[in-house]
Amino acid sequence: MAKPGKGQKLGGAPRTGRWTKQPEEKRLGGRYRDSLIGLAVVGVLLIAGLGAYMVWAHMQLGAGLLRQEAQARRRPDWVPLSQLPPHVREAFLTVVDTASTLRQPGYLRRQRPTLARDLVRQVHQLEPGVRGQASEVAMAQLLEAERSPQRRLELYLNRVYLGRTESWPLFGVHHAAMEYFGKDVRRLTLGEAATLAGILLPPRVLDPEAAPGPVGARRNEVLRLMHGDGRITDAQLGAALSEPLGFQPGEDYAPMTRPLDWSPEAPVIRLPEALRPRLDSLPPVPQP
């Protein structure tokens, strides 16, 4: 076997046994080694910051929404999900997007309020903007991890904002049923349940007493969506549509089902007796 000549490599090394210095391009990372190290440091810091932010969000969720849930479950007005009629649950599932029930058409799915985010937004009253949106998304994801879909739906139905009276807001289907229909939520009909769920349709009715809207049309829309999803039968749809509209907040001065050409009557201004002119002080009316 011929020996390698001078300057030739033997087994990857020079014949002299000394390793030559590799070019910079062949080193780990090459000329971008410092940049890669910097990016790795930034990535570690971002992960650590995100972890710390999620820990803070979990603490906020526990001190706010989850604490309210624990307190509300001990109240006599808390209604367990198992005691609600099926059509009450189905009516709200038609207009609210949940993590486990996504059977709505695509055009409505983009407009439905998300159950977890809606709960977080109502309880924690987050400010609009990037910071509020980030907190809302983070706490909503933690809520979905902490509670099952059934418990989230039960919490939502007992906590959702459904208008207000003259003195206080109405939270939950129990108080809304008592205020608007004068009955327990367990005795609501299909049409009445669809009427309450219609408040959440966009644009949401925040104060029915102050801003009456087409509640009858909203009820019928929810019923037709429930029928389209297969939640109710043809007979149930017909019976619910024929129910009289019992939900009429503000009917004393502005009915919820007012026609499009409706306009309030002109106000009558009556002066106090002391400010009214006397008949003998008025100028005489010219005779024709």
Write structural notes for this entry:
The protein is built from eleven helices and four strands, in the order ββαααααααββαααα. Residues 100-110 and 250-262 have low confidence and may be disordered. It has helices at residues 33-63, 65-72, 86-95, 106-109, 115-124, 130-146, 149-159, 173-180, 190-198, 215-228, 234-241, and strands at residues 9-10, 13-14, 161-164, 169-171. The chain is extended, with a radius of gyration of 34 Å. It has one domain: Penicillin binding protein transpeptidase fold (Orthogonal Bundle). 25% of the residues are buried. The chain has a two-stranded antiparallel sheet with strand order 1-2. The chain has a two-stranded antiparallel sheet with strand order 3-4. The protein has 288 residues and is mostly helical. Keywords: Glycosyltransferase, Hydrolase, Membrane, Transferase, Transmembrane, Transmembrane helix. This is Multimodular transpeptidase-transglycosylase. Pathway: Cell wall biogenesis; peptidoglycan biosynthesis. Residues 114-226 form the Glycosyl transferase family domain.
